Amino acid sequence: MVAVGGGGRRRRAWRWAMRAAASAVLWTAVVQLASIAGLFRPRVLADCGGGGAGGGVGGVAGLAALAGEDTGAARLSPPALVPKRIYKSNGYLRVTCNGGLNQMRAGICDMVTIARHLNLTLVVPELDKRSFWADPSDFGDIFDVDHFINSLRDELMIVKELPLKLQLRTKKRLYSMPPVSWSNETYYLKRILPLAKKHKVIHFEKSDARLANNGLPIQLQTLRCRVNFQALRFTPQIEALGRKLISTLQRSGQFVVLHLRYEMDMLSFSGCTHGCSSKETEELTRMRYAYPWWKEKEIDSVVKRLQGLCPLTPEEITLVLEALGFTKDTLIYIASGEIYGGERRLAALRAAYPKIVKKEKILSPDELRPFQNHSTQMAALDYMVSLASDIFIPSYDGNMARVVEGHRRYMGFRKTIVLDRKKLVELLDLFQGGALAWDEFSDAVKEAHKSRMGQPTERRIIPGQPKEEDYFYANPQECLGSNGGLRDIS
């Protein structure tokens, strides 16, 4: 009886072992198939579930993630890494970005594209700490570094820092230069590549507008989009707070984001002082002279405004919103830093639109404390809200306005009202001078903006004047379907 019992136990153990082995084989096969599926899933859709403004938001899943809705994507396991591209590196590219968040964002997209084109290894970019805001944030304080590196590994190698040997070498001698603005791919191949090979490490002192808007190969243009809409994902902390802002706003119904670029640095830099007191004008002029890299010092504010080159004042934007038909109960989120003149300058806007909110009113001081004194991180929150808004209206065509406009085009041509400031200034002066009745003024404002609502349009090309052309990041048409669908930018 003992012998028989022992044999039975051995048989049961053997059967259990065979079942365990079969389960292991089956599980391994399932994991392999899932990995293969992850590799071949279109990247535009694969990254939509990431949930952030910088994470390639496109389509329903991406919008739901921005709003904080649970689409099920968050419950999926992380997608398999894209296969690494193996290539012989021609050297390292270090970059110091300049400007605010969106100027740096566009510059980073250009730098990745240039590094890929020249087969260079890119060092994670350094961010501007000298600008007006003196923000100490590093790349990893704003963007998800590991996602940035891993999502582009099939295009180029990106490292967090130079190898130690090159770090020591570049402390003694580093070849630095600002590339020529608006350059095409031939300039980088003929002028920059030999320098990179010679010096092993090349440092670009500036990153803004270093690639042409037009005339580049399609693969370079679509790579710029892939970096912008997929690789540049905000940190989990920024995305979580941004989603909370968005969901709070959406619970109140539809909302408009007004990017009111009436801040001290913009007014000083542009020389636009319409509506300012003589004391304020003197203060803004002193500030302009205090920054040596702001080259233009003597500016005729009146002429510049008539040319449409000034941000609209809060009082002007109030009249424009009313003329466009926005009613008193419209929920308006103000995306901006501190308005020059404070609440005094917002009085007319607030009287016309009582439902005005800012992130400082929606979020608690404790929630915002980690982001205080970090203007780029605060701007990232505004960026997320701007993408998710029902309508986006910038009062000036600065970097944020243009990059958000392009991102909203990528998300299906979401409504963005691009104000014709030159025409508006003319109409405002006529109305305020009594030459136009209100109905005439309102009809003229609506007529002037019928074709400026973010619908599909061709990017304007002006040969020999790249600064005057339509900006690539405001209308990345190579990456957009004709009816709002997304092209595969993988």
Automatic annotation (TrEMBL):
Transmembrane segments: none annotated. The keyword Transmembrane applies. It comes from the Eukaryota. Belongs to the glycosyltransferase GT106 family. Pathway: Glycan metabolism. It is found in: Membrane. Keywords: Carbohydrate metabolism, Fucose metabolism, Glycoprotein, Glycosyltransferase, Membrane, Signal-anchor, Transferase, Transmembrane, Transmembrane helix. This is O-fucosyltransferase family protein. The lineage of its organism: Eukaryota, Viridiplantae, Streptophyta, Embryophyta, Tracheophyta. GO terms for biological process: fucose metabolic process. GO terms for molecular function: glycosyltransferase activity. One of its GO terms (cellular component) is membrane. InterPro entries: FucosylTrfase_pln, GDP-Fuc_O-FucTrfase. It is a single-pass type II membrane protein.
